[in-house]
């Protein structure tokens, strides 16, 4: 009864322990720019997925031939590691060892690294589909953006595949007709869950008691209780003005994100041209089939008038071969990636636009006189 209730209740949020966050950041930073992947374990408590531990997948050594080729091959192998048969056995063994030392040993998903928000690809979809279908339906994929986090803003997000996309991916048909029937769009591929970082009470107390700077000499005991509240070693909130917020320089990551956005748009147009080429081929073949059918009908009418046996009219299936429609999956994933880049550009330009609007009168000479 309890298991059925858990399966029916959807996942609402993801809670990650601070130690797990540090382990993921360390692993992703050490392997950057190569993709880093690993497994996460924990438990599901009332719709909240609590991630309490993690471990990386073993890396595969590649013979050195070309540096650029080696980096791409290593990234591809690491990106496909979560669904590899050897890593599945390794993951099962690790979870068995964790269970022996009385640690949460329920597989709740996997994590991967990303650069500049570039994570919506076929490898991620296949990995998450493998986890939700084969291992545990209530699993998530945690994405850590190393490039964004290096600027001082931690980027850690949790995703799941939507039920409608899971059904379409299981069927394996991403044609125009199937997408119209299922009403599936690029917005229905991933479902993002709110992610929070959890600290134990002991760790929270320790963080609050950390001094701003260790004392260079022995400290005197406080004379009264009031001296405790005025301890100079207690960190104070930064009330001084922050001049960095007045910097008008554009974030260099904004330029890189715009370049990636343009590349994704070019890929989108390439996919569009491929589909239009398929439609032209299909139209030409259908015109030939129609002309052949009209000719066969005329021949059969003449044979019937001459009291002869009519020829079969379904021979066109053997004589003509209709082109196969290309899969629209790549187009859907690319559209979702374009949306991701657009959101990043919007986030980058929000602060810059406000600064430019504030100093518009100084930038435009005619504004001061008006």
Distance from first to last alpha carbon: 74 Å
Task: Give the SSE string.
Answer: HEHEEHHEHEHEHHEEHHHHHHH
How does the helix and strand content classify structurally? Answer: alpha/beta
C-alpha-based Rg, rounded: 30 Å
Structure notes:
- With 370 residues, the protein is an alpha/beta fold.
- The protein is 52% helix and 14% strand.
- The protein contains 15 helices and eight strands.
- It has helices at residues 2-8, 18-31, 67-79, 85-100, 122-135, 146-149, 163-171, 176-182, 201-208, 226-229, 252-305, 316-319, 329-358, 360-363, 365-369, and strands spanning 13-17, 37-45, 48-56, 106-114, 140-145, 156-161, 190-193, 195-198.
- The protein has an eight-stranded mixed β-sheet.
- Helix 11 packs antiparallel against helix 13.
- The longest helix is centred in the last third of the chain and has 54 residues, at 252-305.
- The radius of gyration is 30 Å and the shape is elongated.
Question: What is this entry, summarized?
Answer:
This protein is of the alpha/beta class.
């Amino acid at each position: 009864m309890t298991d059925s209730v858990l399966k029916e209740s959807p996942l609402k949020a993801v809670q990650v322990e601070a130690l797990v966050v540090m382990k993921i950041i360390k692993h992703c930073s050490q392997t950057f720019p190569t993709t880093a992947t690993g497994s996460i374990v924990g438990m599901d408590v009332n719709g909240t997925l609590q991630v309490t531990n993690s471990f990386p997948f073993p890396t595969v050594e590649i013979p050195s031939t070309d540096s650029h080729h080696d980096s791409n091959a290593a990234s591809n192998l690491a990106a496909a590691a979560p669904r590899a048969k050897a890593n599945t056995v390794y993951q099962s063994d690790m979870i068995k060892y964790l269970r022996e030392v009385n640690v949460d040993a329920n597989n709740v998903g996997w994590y991967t690294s990303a650069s500049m928000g570039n994570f919506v690809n076929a490898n991620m979809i296949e990995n998450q589909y493998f986890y939700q279908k084969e291992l545990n339906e209530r699993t998530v994929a945690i994405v850590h953006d190393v490039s964004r986090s290096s600027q001082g803003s931690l980027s850690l997000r949790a995703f799941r595949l939507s039920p409608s996309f899971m059904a379409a991916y299981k069927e394996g048909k991403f044609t125009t007709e199937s997408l119209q029937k299922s009403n599936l769009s690029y917005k229905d591929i991933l479902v993002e869950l709110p992610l929070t970082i959890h600290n134990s009470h002991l760790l929270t107390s320790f963080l609050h008691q950390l001094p701003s700077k260790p004392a260079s000499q022995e400290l005197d005991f406080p004379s009264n209780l009031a001296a405790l509240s005025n301890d100079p070693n207690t960190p104070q909130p930064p009330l001084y003005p922050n001049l960095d917020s007045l910097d008008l320089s554009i974030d260099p990551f904004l330029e890189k994100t715009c370049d990636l956005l343009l590349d994704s748009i070019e890929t989108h147009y390439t996919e569009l041209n491929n589909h239009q080429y398929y439609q032209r081929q299909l139209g030409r073949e259908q015109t030939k089939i129609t002309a052949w059918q009209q000719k066969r009908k005329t021949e059969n009418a003449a044979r019937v008038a001459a009291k002869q046996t009519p020829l079969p009219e379904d021979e066109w299936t053997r004589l003509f071969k209709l082109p196969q429609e290309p899969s629209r999956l790549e187009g859907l994933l690319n559209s979702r990636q374009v949306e991701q880049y657009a959101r990043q550009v919007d986030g980058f330009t929000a602060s810059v636009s406000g600064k430019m609007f504030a100093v518009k009168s100084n930038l435009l000479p005619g504004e001061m006189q008006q």
